Amino acid sequence: MKIILTQDVVNLGEEGDVRVVKNGYARNYLLPTGAAVIYNKTNAAIFASRAAAIEKRKEAKRAEAASLKEKLDALTLTLKVTAGESGKLFGSVTSQMVQDELKKAGFEIERKKIEVATHSIKMTGTYSVLIHLYENESSHVKLIVASEAELKAKEKAEAEAKAKAEAEAKATAEAAEAEAAAETETEAEVEVVEEETTAEEN
Question: Which of 8, 65, 128, 148 could form a disulfide with 134 if both were Cys (CB 3.0 to 4.6 A apart)?
């Protein structure tokens, strides 16, 4: 079936594009969701009259995609998972999990635009996730898949080290205060002795 897209559809085309798709795909998804209309003279004329406005929107999307790519390329996501001692995952990393982490980082990305090679992520480690942005623009986000148990142990060790450092700093500060107080007391005693000596001489 020949259709005209009314919006961008991942892996198919952009708003205003004319495509030939399977009848089932058009009837079950594209037409009911309003993502496309049937290609005919009337619809073709409507979209031809909107060509300038559509191109303007495309330019804005291209600029937005370029800006987003720059931010995503510099991003590192850490995903906590359940894993065995060897680092082997008990479950699998899904695009939904990556989408949730992206949302936490302040990025609203459609799940269908996130490509996770689930079959290749079987162990904890560092991976690259492909994010489709606009047209041929895409980004590779660094994904660290970490064991919950390892992260907890690391956090505990860091907390203990921080507490130890704070305790040492407090002890040092208290020792310095005590030393300063002792010096002040000694100076006061010296002053008293000097006053007594002066009084005796008079």
Answer: 65
| Rounded CA separation 69/75 (Å) | 10
Cα separation, 6 vs 14, in Å, equals 8
At 122-166, the pLDDT tens digits run: 888 888 888 888 877 888 888 888 877 665 666 666 676 787 888
Distance between CA atoms of 19 and 3, rounded to whole angstroms? 5
**CATH of span 71-150:** 3.10.430.100
Q: What Rg, from alpha-carbon coordinates, does the chain have?
A: 33
State pLDDT tens for residues 74-125. 888 888 877 777 778 777 788 888 899 889 888 888 888 888 876 677 888 8
Multiple choice CATH, 2-49, 2.60.40.650, 3.30.70.260, 3.40.5.10, 1.10.1240.10: 3.40.5.10
Q: Which is it for strands 137-147 and 76-81: parallel, antiparallel or unpaired?
A: parallel
- Rounded Cα gap, residues 37 and 50, in angstroms: 15
Phi, psi of 180 (to 5 degrees): -65, -40
